[in-house]
Automatic annotation (TrEMBL):
PANTHER family: DEHYDROGENASES, SHORT CHAIN, ESTRADIOL 17-BETA-DEHYDROGENASE 8-RELATED. Belongs to the short-chain dehydrogenases/reductases (SDR) family. It comes from the Bacteria. This is SDR family oxidoreductase. InterPro entries: NAD(P)-bd_dom_sf, Sc_DH/Rdtase_CS, SDR_fam. Keywords: Oxidoreductase. PROSITE patterns: ADH_SHORT. GO terms for molecular function: oxidoreductase activity. GO terms for biological process: bile acid metabolic process.
Amino acid sequence: MRLDNYTALITGGASGIGEATVRLFAERGAQVIIADLDEARGKALETELAGKAEFYKVDVSSAAEVEAMFAMVGQKYGVLDVLYNNAAYSLSKTLWDTTEEDWDKVMRVNLKGYFLCAKYALPLLKKSSHGAIVCTGSELGVVGCVESLAYNSSKGGIIQFAKSLALELAPFGIRVNVVCPAGTETPAFVKDMSRSGNYEGEVKRLVASYPLRRLGQPIDIARAVAFLASEEASFITGTHLMVDGGYTAQ
């Protein structure tokens, strides 16, 4: 599954699932824009991939910054083939512990950010003969979970955002889909699961709930994103692909 001559922009591309996707897209022939707030990691990845990727520092919740980023993409490349909306803010709190500021930050990054990127990418995606948007949802967008109210709500919203956007953009030939990971061994995941001081125990408990009995790896998700972005998925739009080790099949 090659992505030769594709131009792809990946938000949250400096680490975790985003980094794995940047590497895979570059390996398969795409030119990649790494969009992230982490300048140190983003620049290091840009240097490592030597001409196959470039870093752009952006806060996806800022309309001005997002608009400026896509203006740069337009001036330099003229077209965008793939937008991977992946940047996210994770929060593990109950209703009574979640502040208004907590709620707003989750929604700003996880929903508003996806909206802004899609809005400002659209003129460039229209110029592609195979434009595609992929969004990172979650297993927690389709099932409930305690102590994760704001995050779960945002991920459920992403699925509905993509379904509606897929219908709006279908007349332009632009496909919109969601990839929904389960627990994936990223730096953010490790940090979150280490809060109790018993990382191995928390992982063992979580893995026991997955039929495939392992955590997801960033490359597992990256491969699903590459498929949904490619011509091999040319008749797939408005769906969410579970990459969850069978968790939601139970």
